[in-house]
Design a protein that fits this description.
Distance between the termini: 37 Å
Order of helices and strands: EEHEEEEH
Helix content: 10-25%
Strand content: 15-25%
CATH class: Alpha Beta
Shape: globular
Number of domains: 1
Radius of gyration: 15 Å
């Protein structure tokens, strides 16, 4: 029998008006053996991520480490780990949330993916040209 657990996910706000109900918590009931691919499909099916005008929001999901990148203009996420890995193994221990979507504004999602995949600093999320500060 496949045991079910509750996955708690938060997402960043996309603007000041979006802060009203922050941290934008979502609870999903998933089988304990759920994979990253299955969890991503459920998260995207419920349309949890905020859309922005212009249609080019960039997001990445992280727990113990970044898991995948998703862009508003994409139909599927790009996984940073094998998509058939168990999502429970990447959840933050004893934490709420277990996973969090980070909003990386309108930065090119391919560039964000490449930085996360290669362990390089992310580009500035606001498009400023100063050196990036975040290392993953």
């Amino acid at each position: 029998m496949n045991e079910v657990f509750e996955l708690i996910v938060w997402r960043d706000s996309v603007c000041a008006g979006d802060d009203c109900d922050a941290p934008h918590e979502l609870a999903l009931s998933l089988p304990r053996e759920s994979t990253l691919r299955q969890a991503a499909a459920q998260l995207l099916d419920v349309r949890y991520l905020a859309s922005i005008s212009g249609g080019k929001a960039t997001w990445f999901l992280e727990g113990k480490r970044p898991l995948f990148v998703f862009a508003q203009q994409w139909t599927q996420p790009r996984f940073l780990l094998p998509p058939d890995s168990r999502v429970a193994s990447f959840m933050l221990p004893d934490g709420k949330p277990h996973l969090q979507f980070r909003y990386w504004c309108q930065v090119d999602p391919d560039r964000v993916f490449d930085c996360l995949k290669d362990g390089k600093p992310l580009p500035d999320k606001y498009g400023r040209e100063d050196p990036p500060r975040r290392r993953v």
